[in-house]
Amino acid sequence: xxxxxxxxxxxxxxxxxxxxxxxxxxxxxxxxxxxxxxxxxxxxxxxxxxxxxxxxxxxxxxxxxxxxxxxxxxxxxxxxxxxxxxxxxxxxxxxxxxxxxxxxxxxxxxxxxxxxxxxxxxxxxxxxxxxxxxxxxxxxxxxxxxxxxxxxxxxxxxxxxxxxxxxxxxxxxxxxxxxxxxxxxxxxxxxxxxxxxxxxxxxxxxxxxxxxxxxxxxxxxxxxxxxxxxxxxxxxxxxxxxxxxxxxxxxxxxxxxxxxxxxxxxxxxxxxxxxxxx
Length: 278
What we know:
By secondary structure, the chain is mainly beta. The chain has a single domain, classed as Distorted Sandwich (Beta-galactosidase, Chain A, domain 5). The chain contains 2 helices and 20 strands. Strands 1, 2, 3, 4, 5, 6, 12, 14, 17 and 18 form a 10-stranded antiparallel β-sheet that branches.
C-alpha cells in the first residue's frame, strides 16, 4: 500500500491506496473555512472492490462523519457535536508508514475546549490491511489524563463511531446483524456486543461494514440506529474516570467487505483483532 499526504488548500488528509485502487482516507481536520472539521475521521473507507461504505456529514446528523472518536461529556465539554461551544480534537503530530502488506498512521492529538485549553492528550493509531474480501482497519486510541483527572460522563454520544453509507442502512433497504444474531436496530441498541454490521448492495454489488470492539474491550454497549450510525460506547450506562497522569486505551476494528455478511468470517476478524492488540 502507499500513503499520499495531501496538503493543498482544500485537503488535509492521508490517502491510502493499494496500487491505483483507493483504500481509505484519514482526514485530519482544521478550522479553515474550506475544511471546518472539528475532529479527525476516516472517510471514505472502501472495500477491496472499490465500494465506499461510509457516510460523511450525513443528511440528518452532519456531525456523524465516517469513522470517528468523540464524547459529548468529557469533563463537561462536548467533543461530539458540531456546536459553537463544543471542543476540538486537534492533531499536533503525525507519522505514517506503508509497505506491501498495509499502512500505519499515528496521530498525537490534543482535546481542547473552545478557549484553547488542553483537557487531555490522545495517541490514536490507524492500521489498515487487506484480509481476503475485506479491508480491515484497526483504530486504537489511548486517552491520557496529561492535564489533570478526566471523567467521561454517561451519554449516548460516545465513543467509537461508524456511519454507514445510506445504501447499507436499514432505513434504505440494508440489513443489520450483530455478534449475538440480532437483526434489527431496536433489538441491538443498548445491548452488549462484540461487533455490529450493516450490509446491503451498492450499484448491484453486495457489501457491508462491521464495527468491532477488540476482545480486551468487549463486550461493550452499542448505540445502534436504523439510519446507519453505530457507536461502541463504554460510557452508555456508567461514567469512566481516568486519574491524573493515567491513561485509558480502547481498540476498535472496522471491516469493509465485499459480498454478503458472513458471521463466521466476522467472528474470525474480531478474534484476530484480539491477537493483534495483545
